[in-house]
Amino acid sequence: MTADAGFAQPDTFAPRSVLLANGSRARVRASTADDRAALLDLHRGASDASIYLRFFSVNRSAGEAFVQRVCTPSSTRWSLVAEQGGQVLGIATAEVDAPGSAEVALLVDEELHGQGVGTVLLEHLAAWSWRRGVATFVAEVLTANTPMMRVFRDAGFEVTQHRDHEVLSLTLDIRPSTASVAAADSRERTAERRSLTPLLEPTSVCVVGVSRHRGGIGREVLENILGGGYTGTVSAVGRPGLDVPGARCVSSLHEVPPHLDLAVIALPVEQLEEAIRSLGARGTRACVILTSGLGETSAQGRRHEQRLARLAGDFGMRLVGPNCFGVLSNLRSTRLNATFGRGGADPGALAVGSQSGGVGVAVLDASRARGTGIACFVSLGNKLDVSGNDLLAAWADDPAVRAAALYLESFHDPRKFARVAAVFARQKPLLVAFGGTSSAGLRAGASHTAASATPTRALQALFRTSGVVAVDGVEDLVDTAALLTEQPLPRGARLGILGNAGGLGILAADAAQRVGLQLPELSPQTRQALSTAAPGAASTTNPVDLGAAAGPESYRSALDALVSSGDVDAVLVLTAATAVTALEKVREVVAAGADGVDVPVLSVAIGGGRSDSAGTVTGFRSAEAAIHALARACIYAEWRRQTTGAGSDDQGLVVTDVDGVAASPPSGNVATDAGWLAAADAAELLGEVGARVPTMTTVHSVEEAEGAAEGIGFPVVVKAAAGEIVHKSDARLVRTGLHDTRDVGAAAGDLLSALGTGSPLLVQEQVAGPELAIGLTRDERFGPLVMVASGGVNLDLWQDQVFLMPPLRRSEIRDALRSLRTWPLLDGFRGGEPVDVEAVVDLVEAAGRLGDEHPELVELDLNPVVCTPSGPVCVDVKVRAPRVGTTRRTRRPPERDL
Q: Which of 96, 403, 465, 591 qualifies as a cystine partner to 614, CB 3.0-4.6 A?
């Protein structure tokens, strides 16, 4: 992809903000000749031992010569430096020694050994070098240099070595791999958790901008901290005379305690830079900026934000906000409520991040109303520094967090979010509510695939690939989170319904089936057990109706029979209030019956009683709310089964659509001005991935068409061949069912009259079978998206499609196919012969690979794809690739800026 599309060229390196092992921020950038003095100081500050390990002798002049070489421009040598607050922390250099190979060398500040500087530099240098055509690093290392060996191992690269006395000759395969990306992810999670500990578990907090009287934002934050049971030290900055019991009050930022964990700032915009500068100089580790009126209001505000970010970065300080609601944490014994809300939250297992302060208020309020606790809450605001990705990395390995929920209105990098979310979701549930997907954001597209890939569908593809539990609003979020944090994951989608009112059970069963849950028939053994447990039951089928007079003992016995039967994967208990129903006692016995079982138990009390959770049972306000939450839990549980453990077909989400070098179509493919490839060239591209196309010939006259048809064999299809004619059927430029040369001649004559004499036509064998549409489009922010849909005109008629985000799992492709209305035809409807589904999966998988490996490929539209028992046939192929450059084809590296 070209530079104007937002990607760096191979010989440039965009500066990156990175996290070191101690949690502090640093900056990685390309070295320049201006670094000469700093690099000389770096080498002069190295110990004799470090110089010996680096240059194999205690030779200070070798270091000076190295700096001179690094500061001399060269096309075969490039270097990166890490810096913090203007100080160079380390340098990593690659120098080409053979085609595809470069010698690597590193040196890190003596005081920062063990802080991950070398590992971060090596990761970024490897990614940059890979873009410049280098696949292998080589290095000679003394056997005594164990720190350097550790850096190489920690990067996740495959290392081979050869020993010659005390020297190891190492070769590192720096090509992107699941192992190297996993190593970088693991390093970042550890660093992120350390980096955000001062924010999420501070031992000292200072509120800056506190008024002497109640009502101001800063003062209300301070009151919430003091009244919420916070156990750390509290200070406040305000006007002279400020006196708040429980807080150390000062009137100047120069008087705040040194080495604060957290500062919460409620100051006017014009005072923010000085506040950040003063707090940074005092060693403050994290800041929450509540102030609004910056980047959300104007370009000038965005520039102001960037100055704040750079200033905080110079001090290694983390920033939350601006324009945010604050932070609340119940992690371990923190008990911090640094928000200006009207109430806090009890401890719980759900961690929440919200881009909107108002949504955050609603989530906290709904959690209190439900009786569900919160582990921590972070209002992200304008996401100047700390983002949802950062929070997920910090929470992923935290045992106090059993699930996370995010409200987002934007992604800085959706592809990175997909990978971070998938890593998180393989361990614990991640719920996301996303705002801002209205019709105003829809993008017009030329092909069926592009026109169908709306922002909402792109989000659905991202969430489906990464295991995100998508929710529709605050109540839905809180309900689903309660189920996922309080209950075991369901083993499947079979629901058993138990209650005392038949009509309510029937309505619940209907609602369950609408969202994809199954209401299985209960086995004779289970029905007999239910009859024995509840002799007065009106029905022992599913839903089970115990009768209006059912008492607590009947509920308990029936619940025992259901959960132990093996017939169901979850149980919903419905209790309608009557004059003879002891609601509270039923609630107690159901909770006792659910204790220790391995299936989720949900309850709804209708007409009275409590709807909150009762220990081992998760309560809901309605059957519909319970069923929607359970359906989401089932989808997530199935994703977990497909991506973890034995039989997983997960590919590790090695994201390749970031910071890469553009590949190009195969040599010889020529695009039109609009970028549409000619039919023969498009077919050639598909042939590279093993896709089958019908036998076809390009012709330019009636006589050529008749001869081609006789050579192919009847029946045939004749249609326009120009790549830029996207919707041929709509333009009436396709003729099918041609059984002899007379039909072919007439069809070709009609088309040439419409298109012009000499226009290219395709004569193609006609293939019969169920039709699908398979396509690929490239969203500017989400990257490649693959569409699986009902084919032909049914795509437009039914709007029956699913979008997936590469890299694709075969299991998710199968699930997508089964979700289509066309699926019964593929599976042998009414005695028909089933098609080769695995071959269809192969084709969809190939479309995803094309999207990953050909970043210049903008649209691929295979419609229809005729499915047969011997495999799919791509009858009509459209490919758009307007940015055609060289013929070099490479796979791009995964993102290293984690």
A: 591
> How many angstroms separate the CA atoms of 417 and 595, rounded?
37
Residue with tokens 């029946």: 715
H helix and E strand count, the chain = 27, 36
Distance between CA atoms of residues 456 and 807, nearest Å: 19
Q: Where are the beta strands (DSSP E) in 436-491?
A: 469-470
Q: List C-alpha distances in Å: 13 to 8, 97, 149, 168, 392.
A: 7, 21, 26, 30, 27
pLDDT along the chain (898 residues), means of 10: 36 88 90 93 91 86 89 92 92 94 93 90 94 92 88 88 89 87 85 93 98 95 96 96 96 96 97 97 96 92 94 92 96 94 92 94 93 94 93 94 94 86 95 73 40 70 93 94 96 96 95 96 95 89 92 92 96 89 87 92 83 80 96 96 68 37 33 64 79 89 94 93 74 91 94 91 92 90 90 77 90 92 90 92 92 83 92 89 47 34
CA distance 752 to 761: 8
- Contacts (Cβ under 8 Å, ≥6 apart) of 200: 327, 329, 331, 334, 376, 378, 394
Beta-carbon neighbour count of residue 451 at 10 Å?
17
What is the C-alpha to C-alpha distance for residues 560 and 568, in angstroms, rounded to an integer?
12
Tell me phi and psi for residue 406, to 5 degrees: -125, 135
Report which secondary-structure segment, H or E, holds 248: strand 248-250
**Which residue type does 114 have?**
G
CA nearest 480: which of 635, 638, 633, 376?
633
What residues does 868 pair with on adjacent strands?
A: 871
Distance of CA 546 to the CA centre of its chain: 45
Q: 240 vs 221, 257, 351, 592, CA distance in Å?
A: 19, 17, 38, 59
Residue 45 phi, psi dihedral angles, 5° rounding: -80, -10
Nearest one of 770, 780, 799 to 864, comparing CA atoms: 770
Determine the Cα–Cα distance for residues 341 and 318; give it in Å rounded to an integer: 23
Alpha-carbon gap, residue 882 to 884, rounded angstroms = 6
Calpha distance 460→466 (Å, rounded): 10
Q: What are phi and psi of 313, to 5 degrees?
A: -65, -35
Rg of the chain (C-alpha set) = 32
Q: How would you classify the pairing of strands 734-738 and 783-790? A: unpaired
Cα separation, 575 vs 626, in Å, equals 13
pTM of the predicted model over 0.70: yes
* DSSP-based three-state secondary structure for 289: strand
73 preceded by a cis bond (ω within 30 of 0): no
Nearest to 134 by CA among 163, 98, 161: 98
C-alpha–C-alpha distance, residues 302 and 510, integer Å = 51
Identify the residue whose tokens are 């934050």.
221
159 burial type by CB count under 10 A (0-12 exposed, 13-18 middle, 19+ buried): middle
CB 523 within 8 A of CB 564: no
**Residues in a beta bridge with 289:** 265
- Give 882's DSSP letter: -
Rounded Cα gap, residues 752 and 719, in angstroms: 10
- Identity of the residue numbered 583: L
Q: CA of 131: how far to CAs of 100, 171, 446, 885, 892, in Å? A: 11, 18, 32, 16, 7
- The 3 state secondary structure assigned to 487-542 is CCCCCCCEEEEEECCHHHHHHHHHHHHHCCCECCCCCHHHHHHHHHHCCCCCECCC
Indicate the helix (H) or strand (E) that contains 545.
Answer: strand 544-545
Q: Are 493 and 517 in contact (CB under 8 A)?
A: yes
Q: Please tell me what DSSP assigns to residue 30.
A: E
Query: Helix 474-486 and helix 623-643: axis angle, to 10°?
Result: 60
* Alpha carbon distance 788, 816 (integer Å): 7
Strands (E), 340-489: 347-354, 374-379, 403-408, 430-434, 469-470
